[in-house]
Please model this.
Amino acid sequence: MRAEAVALAANWAEFLRLHAEKLYAVELRENIAAAHALAAKLEAGAVPDGETVRDLTERDWAGLDDAGLVHAAVDVLEAVGWVRRVQEPTAGRTRTLIRVHPDFRQGGPA
Model:
């Protein structure tokens, strides 16, 4: 009986883990949702080349209303070549610009 009880408990734990992953998928993969939101804005031509993370956060777009989410979205999209970060020195702190791939720039090629 003990082996059966252990197997039943293991199966139940696996079921609960899978169920929890489904329930919390959005929170666990927040970066992917943010990347989709930013990608939609890029495809719509709503993101000018050279914007900063702060600029994008201040637009208060759904899914991109927090600097952490914008950074997470840029991380994902940078990995696939849609954007890249460029550090620009200023009199104070270094500013990070988001450079947009030419295919997604306003007025750029379709």
